[in-house]
Amino acid sequence: MRALPWILGGGVAAYALTRSRTASSPARPVAPALSGRWVWPVPRWNDRSPVISDGFDSPRPGLPRHGGVDLMFARAATDPFKVGTPNGSKGCVMPDGLSAVAASDGVIWSASKTPQGFAVVIDHTPIRVATFYTHLEELFVAPTMSAKSGERVRAGQPIGVIGASPLDGEHLKHLHFELWLGGPSNRIDPSPLMRGWEVVSDSNALVARNAGFTYRAIGESGDAYPEWVRALKGKAGVYVIRDLESREIVYVGSSAGRLYDTLTRHFQTWRRWKGFWRGQYGEGHDPGLTYPRNAVEVAVRITSPSRSLDEELRLIRKLQPRDNVIGQTDRIVDEEVPF
């Protein structure tokens, strides 16, 4: 990945620069039309689209004017969040655990912790545009600076969990989002462009039960697996594989103690053969089914070893994955699994 000097200060450190404008600063230029797919960086929640709760260049007593837009959801009468809590203001709300998503395809230029929470900069080369996201309480991408990780993301891919700025006395959860034409000194108002952007569905809503799933990319063939995948070694749980483009659920699987090994076998296309387990011949629940890494995304839920198979069967019944056969697991429960 080549260095991009136009993204100043390594990206995340530039957040301080986004607060340096004064009321007398000249108006920023309006962005031209952007090529490729662009989506709102906050997904739909409870069938509701996000709104801009605080706009670009808005005045703030005692503070520099706003260098981006804040995103939340317009308050509804049924919302349980009280005004003055981290989840609610008078006019807007933000639930716990909602993911921020990449606004468009790109490479993670920087991802790290800042005084304002975790922050991410995505470089959208070949167009000369970067996007900035902050107030995240958790990252789904690998920490990096100056694009050293080379991690690529797709439009709509979760990049972190939306939280609040630790420096905000109200601790109100929201996503702060910026669009840079050449770097943080060339921030523009993204709202005119966002009117034409797609709002994607919340991936957590698909299989919510006690906790939701968050789908994440697993990189290109030959890349090291992300840290969250490597952390599955020795764990029990279930996994869901989803087609990246169509969002179709293609496979659900589980492991009672070797979740990393079971999951990553699906991406070893060079080892593909029929009859991967004894008594299996490449049908239905055959764990020899493999998928190109750059064409799918994965969600994982950790369970106790005794619960993993039951949870797998529940999700198969619920999600009807394309490449599973309901009940196939019942025929292999007593077979020895080679991994």
Would you mind describing this structure in some detail?
- This protein is mainly beta and 339 residues long.
- It has two domains: 8-194, Distorted Sandwich (Glucose Permease (Domain IIA)); 203-331, GIY-YIG endonuclease, CATH 3.40.1440.10.
- 8% of the residues lie in helices and 23% in strands.
- The chain is built from four helices and 15 strands.
- The strands form two sheets. Strands 1, 2, 3, 4, 5, 6, 7, 8, 9, 10 and 11 form an eleven-stranded antiparallel beta sheet that branches. Strands 12-15-13-14 form a four-stranded antiparallel beta sheet.
- The protein is globular.
- Mean pLDDT is 79; it is low at 1-26, 205-211, 273-286 and 326-339.
Task: Give the topology, please.
Elements (H helix, E strand, L loop, with lengths): L50 E4 L14 E6 L17 E2 L5 E3 L4 E9 L2 E7 L6 E10 L12 E2 L4 E5 L12 E6 L6 E2 L2 H4 L21 E2 L9 H4 L6 E7 L5 E7 L3 H6 L31 E7 L5 H12 L20
Antiparallel strand pairs: 1-2, 2-3, 2-10, 4-9, 5-6, 5-8, 6-7, 7-9, 7-10, 10-11, 12-15, 13-14, 13-15
Based on the model shown, name its key terms.
disordered C terminus; disordered N terminus; 15 strands; mainly beta; 2 domains; GIY-YIG endonuclease; Glucose Permease (Domain IIA); 4-stranded antiparallel β-sheet; 11-stranded antiparallel β-sheet; 339 residues
| Secondary-structure content class | mainly beta
Which stretches are low in confidence, meaning pLDDT under 50 for 5 or more residues running? 1-26, 205-211, 273-286, 326-339
CATH domain fold name of the largest domain? Glucose Permease (Domain IIA)
CATH architecture of the largest domain: Distorted Sandwich
CATH classification, class level of the largest domain: Mainly Beta
Count all strands and give the number.
Answer: 15
Total discrete domains: 2
Q: Which strand-content bin applies to the residues?
A: 15-25%
Cα-to-Cα separation, first versus last residue: 36 Å
Mean pLDDT: 79
Helix content: under 10%
